[in-house]
Amino acid sequence: MDTHLNRVEEIKIEQGVKKSRTPARLDYAQSATGLFLALFMWAHMMLVSSILLGEEMMYKVTKLLEGEPILGESYPILVTLTAIFIFTIFITHAAIAIRKFPGSWKEYRLYRAHMKRMKHGDTNLWFYQVMTGFVMFFLGSVHLFIIMTNPADIGPYASADRIVSEWMWPVYILLLLAVEFHGSIGLYRLAVKWGWFEGKDAKKSRKKLKMYKWFITFFFLTLGFLSLAAYIKIGLAQIDADKVGSRYIPQSSIEKGVH
Q: Residue 38 belongs to a domain with what CATH number?
């Protein structure tokens, strides 16, 4: 297929048609937005997993994101603005990447046949990335919309209620799997594509990169499921205590007698 496309380009050049730089620019844009989103998701997972250090720590992280330690007061609108920015990058990345997806059932069948014939690990990884990207596009959009429209409903109790009482846990399980597989595969393919960390022996470095990719996937999936379990535990406790909808009161407020 690549040979055919190259020949088409050669014919166009021979006929005096100027070769377009647009595909190269789109590739750079896709790589840049993908790298940004992957790094953001790592940071996001670290912040979300603060619940593993206790409800108080997660509350402090929430207030940090709302600007309270710096501005002296919480501004949930900052969370909305951040979510809008991330959503814009997310949609941009998806719009650029979708041009490489199979555009019809016939193209899909051809690619699957190609996969079976090649039996090539990186070819299979690209297919898994397409599938996880498709899932992530819908579920990630739902999650970001909720955050954009409910920025004040983030915290130990509010987040736990959303996961358990509002039955969002199935969505978050699927989203966690899609994000971590898509992100780690994407970073691996970026490193291979642009020759990062290649060293003197490309084959050996690729093998190491693939090992690191699986380590990163395992690490963040473990961290994600442990965090999700912690929120579910809190959410179930909220139901048992008939406190669904209540908000977490920080220790400092309790000591001052503020409720």
A: 1.20.1300.10
